[in-house]
Design goal:
By secondary structure, the chain is an alpha+beta fold. Helices cover 39% and strands 20% of the residues. The chain contains 19 helices and 21 strands. α16 links the parallel β19 and β20.
Length: 489
């Protein structure tokens, strides 16, 4: 067969990139064409995204990619983070810049929501974990805003960029499930829930499946870039959905971790789990490719290290991630234990000071130098992975033999080894560009070049060699894990 050339735009909390995928029917080859920065913009006490700048960068990347292929591509797909959204008003005007999920406006709104609808009922209708930045609570924060009355359409971030490129106003399934007002039992928006919390829902768009053809590049942008009107196909527009589609597993006896700014740890299932135990452990049922569900939990992830690095840069000390990891490898082990998901670590700020304060308040050794702080953060992540693994195995009453880690976090080999040691499981790390790869393979599914998710994963296995991490004998992670469990009790 001839080679198909597709473009994946993958936007994360720190950066975005445009990656070409060249697919010959058996192997996928990647070619990065454009990379650009992303991050929150603070105005007074508010945190926003900058979608117009991101769109400009994506147009530049599309032009570069298409012109390198004679002015055309077979398809384009976009994935981003979940929960955040934009509102379009009359004439499809953007009513406001989308807020960043770390914006403080949702503080206290979980409790307010539970006063209107019990926690158990919200979970029964949505199957989604309770996190204060879910779209449901962002909308609750806007109840008195005139923007809700003016809004004609709500679009999540990936869907917003698809609208900018094609004019189509739809919401892709994997992204819709992150809102906490999608009902997996009915397969539609949880309108009854929205009615009960006093929120409108007239602006919610049609929900489409991954691999759906959304539309073609508008004529105006085609003319602006000097390229042909390429088709846009929805991958799993939620980046974790795309990343999990690229997990190179051959059977079901595994857990996965999509590792980056956030760590998303779970397993793939064919139907949502809405049990009391799932609620007690605050697991979530997010949509995947082929109507699968990602049964998982969010863990703070490498955000802890990223924010430490930013703080040290503000203080005039610049470190690469490789340098910080090397310092952590040389630092003493297990000097303290922190809960990586403590509330104080969510918002931007002086993360080293917050970690030291946590240790001080819990009567533990306070880390002072960067190596000790980063090691503590990496140990905390590995310990939390074990905690989630224990909960998964308890819920499903079976042992998960391997942990597949995908995404940029696998470049931190120390964290991969800590994960193997803490969980006493074989860790299979790779591919690093899992989100872009999953995006591309779902585009291939939409083009009819692969017939199923299993076939797509076979292509991933053909194309990318993973790294393996076996548990190191003789390290006392059990005692440290007990200390974490005591803190979480």
């Amino acid at each position: 067969m001839s080679t198909r050339t597709m473009l994946a735009f993958d936007l994360g909390a720190e950066s975005g990139r445009g990656i070409l995928g060249h697919f010959d029917g058996e192997h996928l080859r990647l070619e990065e064409k454009h990379r650009f920065a992303n991050g929150p913009v603070q105005i007074l006490d508010r945190l926003y995204w900058n979608p117009l700048s991101l769109f400009s960068e994506m147009k530049q990347g599309l032009g570069l990619a298409a012109k390198a292929r004679g002015g055309t591509l077979d398809s384009v797909g976009i994935d981003t983070w979940g929960v955040d959204f934009a509102l379009l008003g009359p004439g499809d005007a953007l009513l406001d810049n989308p807020r960043n999920y770390r914006d403080p406006r949702t503080d206290g709104l979980l409790e307010e929501a539970f006063s209107l609808v019990p926690r158990e009922e919200i979970f029964a209708q949505t199957g989604i974990q309770f996190m204060k930045f879910n779209t449901l609570y962002q909308l609750l924060a806007m109840r008195s805003s005139p923007l809700l009355d003016q809004a004609h359409t709500l679009l999540l971030m990936g869907d917003l960029f698809n609208f900018f490129f094609t004019g189509a106003k739809v919401c892709e399934f994997s992204n819709a499930t992150t809102t906490q007002f999608y009902n997996p039992s009915t397969g539609d928006w949880a309108r009854t829930l929205l009615d009960r919390v006093g929120l409108p829902h007239h602006f919610l768009p049609e929900i489409i499946e991954p691999a759906t053809h959304i539309g073609h590049l508008t004529g105006a942008i085609s003319e602006e870039l000097g390229i042909r009107p390429v088709p846009f196909i929805a991958p799993a527009t939620h980046d974790t959905g795309s990343a999990v589609a690229a997990v190179p597993a051959e059977d079901a006896d595994y857990a996965y971790i999509s590792s980056g700014t956030w760590s998303l740890m779970g397993t793939e299932i064919n139907a949502p789990v809405l049990s009391e135990n799932a609620l007690v452990h605050n697991f979530t049922n997010e949509g995947g490719v082929g109507r699968t569900y990602r049964f998982l939990k969010n863990i703070m992830g490498l955000w802890l290290v990223q924010e430490c690095r930013r703080q040290w840069e503000r203080e005039g000390r610049s470190y690469s991630y490789a340098e910080l990891t090397e310092l952590a490898a040389r630092a003493p082990a297990f000097t303290a234990v922190i809960n990586a998901d403590d509330e104080r670590f969510i918002t931007p700020g002086d993360m080293p000071a917050r970690i030291r304060a946590y240790c001080r308040e819990t009567g533990q050794t306070v880390p002072e130098d960067p190596g000790a702080i980063v090691r503590l953060a990496l140990e905390a992540l590995a310990l939390k992975y074990r905690y989630i693994l224990d909960a998964l195995e308890g819920l499903f009453e079976r042992r998960l033999e391997r942990i597949h880690i995908v995404g940029g976090g696998i470049q931190n080999q120390l964290l991969c080894q800590f994960t193997a040691d803490a969980t006493q499981r074989l860790v299979v790390a790779g591919p690093v560009e899992a989100t872009a790869i999953g995006n591309l393979m779902v585009q291939a599914l939409g083009l009819g070049e692969v017939g199923s998710l299993d076939e797509a994963r076979q292509v991933v296995r053909n194309s990318f060699e993973p790294a393996y991490y076996a548990p190191t004998p003789g390290q006392d992670w059990d005692a440290v894990y007990e200390r974490l469990c005591t803190q979480l009790a």
